[in-house]
Write a structure and sequence with these properties.
Structural class: alpha+beta
Shape: globular
Number of strands: 16
Strand content: 25-35%
Radius of gyration: 21 Å
Strand order of the largest sheet: 1-7-8-9-10-14-11
Number of helices: 4
Distance between the termini: 83 Å
Order of helices and strands: HEEEHEHEEEEEHEEEEEEE
């Protein structure tokens, strides 16, 4: 009996030591970028934006090509943490690339694009998608870089390297990664995203700039503390850019119910998930206007695989534009959540 107890004690000590070393490794390798980091812009189309000409926008959270209709996600109450397999990732990526190639958008904002992640079976999605837009400007901002996410324990998410990817048919003068405020407590933050804005600045013919703030805001933070900080920071950026005389567009995955939309208008039997919250009243600065299609959902809950008419769905993806930007149309492209847990949103605008 004494030998058994001693063996258990040694085993416990080894496990604790290994766990401490693992936490130390994650702490030392924690991705902590500066508040503002210049980003490389690949490609250099010479065409300049012009006031008065229609401009087609598209935003799409592609769910790292792993969140197709058959997938669920452990953070939302499901079981999954990775795509079903390499074939599933490749199939979703091909379908998404085909859709993007035919979408005809001038500016494309993509969220949850993986470079080399265990959850998407090491498929370089950035490289594949850049092949869809030859000759266009592209910029990538990392918002998730962890050497190993150890949860869930039985099938951990593993290594993650992903972020925001944007394309433009027009000259993109410069881009900046702006760190969003708010972090989880240690050690939880070691496995979390480092949310950011990807700030793209496009010069206009005749002078001036269009500033596009590409975003993917937090969702699973406890109590909404981080989300409040992010929204306050974002609102400050919107006001600063508009006061500087620029045209401003903020677009992407807001992870909040967007104004004018109501999840109760969609058929479903599943309850409203805890993560769903509406944007606080008065968030949009005076003069800014929402470009949202409230008639079709842009996201589904991932506690279970997608079940039409049962799964919770809502509108959390879209655009917010300044008063010198006219909105001609906004439409959710309903892809039935076949290849991502989001649907893309297309908008047609005019710079005044």
């Amino acid at each position: 009996m004494r030998h058994v107890l001693r063996a258990l004690a040694w085993a416990s000590a080894l496990l604790l030591t290994a766990f401490a070393l693992f936490l130390g490794f994650l702490t030392l390798t924690d991705y902590r970028p500066a508040a503002a980091v210049p980003l490389d812009v690949s490609g250099d189309p010479r065409r300049l934006l012009q006031r008065g000409e229609p401009l087609a926008l598209l935003t799409f959270n592609i769910g790292y090509c792993g969140m197709d209709a058959a997938a669920d996600f452990f953070m939302d109450g499901g079981q999954g943490s990775r795509a079903a397999g390499r074939e599933a990732v490749d199939g979703n990526l091909r379908a998404i690339a085909s859709f993007l190639a035919g979408a005809g958008a001038d500016i494309v904002l993509l969220q949850e694009v993986d470079v080399r992640s265990s959850r998407s079976h090491l498929v370089d999605q950035r490289a594949a998608l850049e092949g869809v837009f030859p000759g266009q400007a592209s910029v990538f901002a990392v918002n998730y870089k962890v050497p190993w996410v150890p949860v869930p324990l039985l099938r951990p998410m593993g290594a993650v390297h992903g972020g925001l990817l944007a394309f433009s048919r027009f000259h993109l003068r410069r881009a900046l990664r702006r760190q969003l405020p708010g972090r989880e407590s240690w050690p939880r933050q070691l496995a979390e995203l480092d949310r950011c804005l990807c700030e793209c600045r496009l010069p206009l013919r005749g002078g001036g700039e269009l500033v596009v703030l590409h975003l993917h805001l937090s969702v699973f933070d406890r109590g909404g503390r981080i989300r409040r900080k992010q929204l306050e920071f974002l609102r400050g950026r919107l006001l600063a850019e508009r006061r500087a005389g620029h045209h401003v567009i903020a677009g992407g995955d807001w992870n909040h119910g967007l104004p004018g939309s109501d999840p109760g208008s969609f058929a479903r039997t599943a309850p409203r998930p805890a993560w769903y919250r509406e944007l606080p009243p008065g968030f949009a600065p005076a003069g800014f206007r929402w470009a949202v299609d409230p008639g079709r959902p842009t996201v589904r809950a991932s506690s279970t695989p997608y079940r039409p008419g049962e799964s919770f769905v809502a509108v959390i993806d879209g655009f917010l534009v300044s008063d010198n930007v006219g909105v001609e149309s906004v439409v959710v492209r309903d892809l039935g959540f076949r290849h991502s847990d989001h649907n893309p949103v297309a908008a047609r605008i005019v710079l005044r």
